[in-house]
UniProtKB/TrEMBL annotation:
Enzyme class: lyase
GO cellular component: cytoplasm
Assigned protein family: Belongs to the DeoC/FbaB aldolase family. DeoC type 2 subfamily.
Pfam families associated with the record: DeoC
GO terms for MF: deoxyribose-phosphate aldolase activity
Name this polypeptide is given: Deoxyribose-phosphate aldolase
Organism the protein comes from: Edaphobacter aggregans
Amino acid sequence: MAVKQQEQHPVIHQSVPVELNGRLLEPNRRIPLNLEWVEEIRVNTSAVERRASTIDTRRSVKKEWQAAWLLRAIACMDLTTLSGDDSAERVKRLCAKARYPLQRHIVEKLGIEELNLTTGAVCVYHAFVETAVKALEGTDIPVAAVSTGFPAGLSPLAERVQEIRRSVEAGAHEIDIVITRAHVFNGEWQALYDEVAAFKDACGAAHMKAILGTGDLLTLRNVARASVVAMMAGADFIKTSTGKEATNATIPVSLVMVRAIRDYAERTGMSVGFKPAGGIKTAKQALQWMYVMKDELGRPWLEPSLFRFGASSMLADIERQLEHYITGRYSAAYRHPIA
Ligand SMILES: O=C[C@H](O)COP(=O)(O)O
């Protein structure tokens, strides 16, 4: 049973030119803080919520097309473990799953052996960066570290910066930083910009995802303002949540963030990636987020270079749905352990 690949003939890791409205974009780099851009932001909350509630009705993919979208969701997934009881053994199992995210019989039945499908990255605490790097040797799978006093981000700034440096030295290719949420609800835009810029400098060549902790930011306007400040400070990605806030990734918050990415790209000619994270557990949710990306930003934002899910348990449900697609039956969830 061959899967119809999304679009016509995509290859999961193929790079497509990053274009928006026909304009070729460059990767983001820091620009000076423009407070006018921050202050002029307005968000029509009820319009955003209305739009969010119709995501499923505007677009739907079925059968082999849905299978292809789910494979892409795997390729765009930061397979994550961020628990107090994490251990080297758990991280090794997670890395094995990142290398081979689907059971062999599913891969064969789908006819996708040549894709060599892997997850987009593995995301762990700093303490497990070396273990993950070693476990992923011989692959192109990057290791992402949550640094900067994750999840609260309230340790002294120098320690947070130092933690990034240590994660990069340990081999992390990507760093997920957390911002000081109080800078946002106190309107301290310069302080937020300086903090994110300091983190970006400490990352060096590693890619930086800025976690806004949107569940703590009180309003969608604050989410939009924090997004644009993080982008001006040089973030490569903006990310919704740590997975530890009371409210994690939601579609309304994501709409606001991807529209901020679009406005920023139109103004600057530069692209920034998006990572929804926290509480995303099902294949159905994965499709909803991918509809948002396709509708609001277009095809380049369905590549791992510009789109990642942060998820610790979604892969199990995707694997189960793909097995249902090829066998017509649902298997028990325990047959799809994540790690
Ligand atoms: O960055 C990733 C999140 O911490 C994952 O959250 P989750 O455990 O709710 O999937």
